[in-house]
Amino acid sequence: MSRDDFLIIGFTGAFASGCSESSELFRVKIAEEIRRLVDNKAGVNASITNCYNKIAQVRSEGKVKTKELRRDLKKKLRMRSLILAAQKTKADQFVYISMTVVMYSIALDWLVRKNKKKQIANRYAELCGIMSNWAKAAGFDKKVLGSIHRAVEKKHVQKWSVVQEYHAKVGELKDEVARCYKGRQLELFQIMQGVGNNLRKCGRPFDDAAGFENPEYLQALSQAACNFIKLNRKWQIQTNQITRTYYVIECFRNASEIDYFRSRFYEFYLFSLFCDERTRHLRAKDRYGLSASDCIEIDKRDQGSSNLGELYAQNITKCVNLADISLSNTETKVDLYDKLIKYFILIKNPSCITPTRQERNMHLAYSLSLSSTCISRKVGAVIVKDEYIVGAGWNDTEINRIGCGYRIVSDLDETNNRSFPLANESEYSKVRQIVYDSHPNKDDSFCYKDEYGKLRKRKVDVVNDCCAVALDGLNTGSLQQCRALHAEENAILQGARLGGVGVKGATLFTTTFPCELCAKKIMQVGISAIIYCEPYPKSVSLDVFLKEGVDLVKTKHFEGVKSPSYYKLFKASYDAKDRQQLSAMWSS
Q1: How far are the Cα atoms of 93, 403, 405, 411, 493 from residue 484, in angstroms, in the given order?
Q2: How many CB atoms lie within 10 A of CB 167?
Q3: 207 CB-side CA count, 13 A
Q4: What is the structure's pLDDT at 463?
Q5: Which end of the chain is more exposed for a tag (fewer CB within 10 A), N or C?
């Protein structure tokens, strides 16, 4: 039984990681690629028979080492299950939505209908000139754009063809702007990053000077894309009697935009694409003529800020962390398409295949992370050796200690440094006052590491205002003051506490890449590989600790279904036997 009514697939990833190529598959090549997979059925069946015969031959000759043969057989059986599901999957063409085109359409509408010159920063002058001239030549004046805006807002089905043509024309505007900035691609990327940030910040695309005015603006781009989808879906149902509508969106750059779709559409799936920096830079050079330093500059802006006041900024890292499915795109386009087809079929046919080893172990790590009482970051880790779990843990305080998530500011009113220790006796009153000053709401939890770090900052002899400003921008919370053991530490220590097999040669599955403190312990106990989902902010673990010595630790970005969608995709509404009976009844 397949899910067959409505679907939105979105993409996110770092610059030049492959979002455009992935969207292209769903836009124009999906049926062709599924046919290619189904046509391989006879070959897969033949290879399965061959595997069975080889295993029987090995047994008859008295050999017992059939592990590799069975592993190969299981891989082929898994492929056959995917092909059988693909045979039932309807591969309708997707309606393509570019968030960049959506951004251009909002910016053009503002420029033509709401333009106030004081709200246009100097760096956008050339762009605004190009857009204004194009709008005049294309006949998009205030009246026309106002009519299009109302048609989308009110979902006027009879105006769908006009709206569709407008979005196609805006795509041409995007290409025209790219031609005008030929040879200055980095400048154009930076300008458009600014336009997107401004729309999410204040709703005015060219106003750099404005502050963050209203959280509703965070979803301006997603709301516009969503209105387009609703109008298209209404038009398809009313005019063509089509009940199945699929959409592909390229690409999400802010977590609030993802949240907008996820909170409204159950059948929304976000793919994140991972590609190593060197490969991305080579692609950017071939496609846009950008240098490695240009790409690094774009990446810096794409990463956004951890500052709560800059929630409007592009932040690819946060978007990647929110993905339902994570894929690596370091090989060929055919390899990428095979992965995308596999997960599209799984989306349409939940539980048609079982989780991979990576998916199973990373799901366990994410499940463990939920036990953490850390208010900054929840991390889970699982150590696997010879397919068995030999260690598991999450970041939390030592056994029988209270984590930060359960300690609130008002607890300090009725406790002292013995019942609720904060610091040594000479510093206790200072740390407590810092906590009070930082948290007016006494029901707030507080991070001990951060609060104690503020005391250390105060101890520094600040000689002038310039030093004070610089010091204020530093993150003074040190891992040494953190009350918790990290997930990797707890997983390693589990064996020491309870006894058991060693972890030498094992693989560590962790939701977040190890910090510097954990990296050294991982090296010491002999763990040979790390598979992770999220990078650790500002960590030098990979560049320094894990590259030193003879026995290097292999690191790999996780690939597959992430925990938030694990049950959604691997647990069907009916068990396989029930599905077969229902299918037989429907076909009779």
Answers
A1: 50, 8, 11, 19, 14
A2: 19
A3: 18
A4: 47
A5: C
CB distance 217 to 181 below 8 Å: no
Q: Does the predicted model carry a pTM greater than 0.85? A: yes
For 334-344, write each residue's pLDDT tens digit. 999 999 999 99
Edge-to-edge strand list for the sheet holding 529-534: 388-394, 380-385, 507-512, 529-534, 554-557
Q: How many residues does the chain have?
A: 588
Tokens found for residue 145: 């754009």
Residue carrying structure tokens 């996110």? 12
Give the whole-angstrom CA distance, residue 2 versus residue 216: 36
CB burial string 75-109: b at 16+ within 10 A, e below? ebebbbbbbebbeebebeebbbbbbbbbbbbbbbb
> Which alpha helices (DSSP H) does 289-356 contain, by range?
292-302, 316-321, 333-348
Contact call for residues 312 and 194 (beta carbons, < 8 A): no
Question: Which two tokens mark 13?
Answer: 């990833």
Average pLDDT over every residue of 32-43: 95
Question: In whole angstroms, what separates CA 19 from the centre of its chain?
Answer: 12
What are the helix and strand counts (H, E) for the chain?
Answer: 23, 11
Question: How far is residue 587 CA from its own chain's centroid?
Answer: 40
What's the start-to-end Cα distance of the chain, in Å? 15
In order of 226, 358, 492, 530, the CA distances from 556 in angstroms are 35, 11, 19, 6
pLDDT score of 47 more than 60:
yes
Task: Give 308 or 433, the one with higher predicted confidence.
Answer: 433
Section 293-316 average pLDDT: 80
Amino acid at 247: Y
Amino acid identity of 484?
A: A
Of the options 3.30.420.10, 3.30.450.40, 1.10.340.30, 3.40.140.10, the CATH number for the domain spanning 358-396+484-557: 3.40.140.10
325-328 vs 560-561, strand pairing mode:
antiparallel
For residues 404 and 374, the answer to whether their CB atoms sit within 8 Å is yes
Give the three-state DSSP class for 391.
strand
The 3-state DSSP class for residue 99 equals: helix
Dmax over CA atoms of the chain, in Å, equals 86
Q: Which residues is 95 bridged to in the sheet?
A: 247
Give residue-wise pLDDT tens across range 310-324: 889 999 989 999 999
The C-alpha atoms of residue 112 and residue 145 are separated, in whole angstroms, by 8
Q: Which residues of 378-404 are buried (b: 16+ CB within 10 A; e: fewer)?
A: bbbbbbbbeeeebbbbbbbbeeeeebb
Distance CA 104, CA 102 (A): 5
- Tell me the pairing of strands 529-534 and 554-557: parallel
* Of 88, 80, 85, 86, nearest in space to 43 by CA: 80
Please tell me what DSSP assigns to residue 336.
H
Indicate where the chain has its CATH 3.40.140.10 domain(s).
358-396+484-557
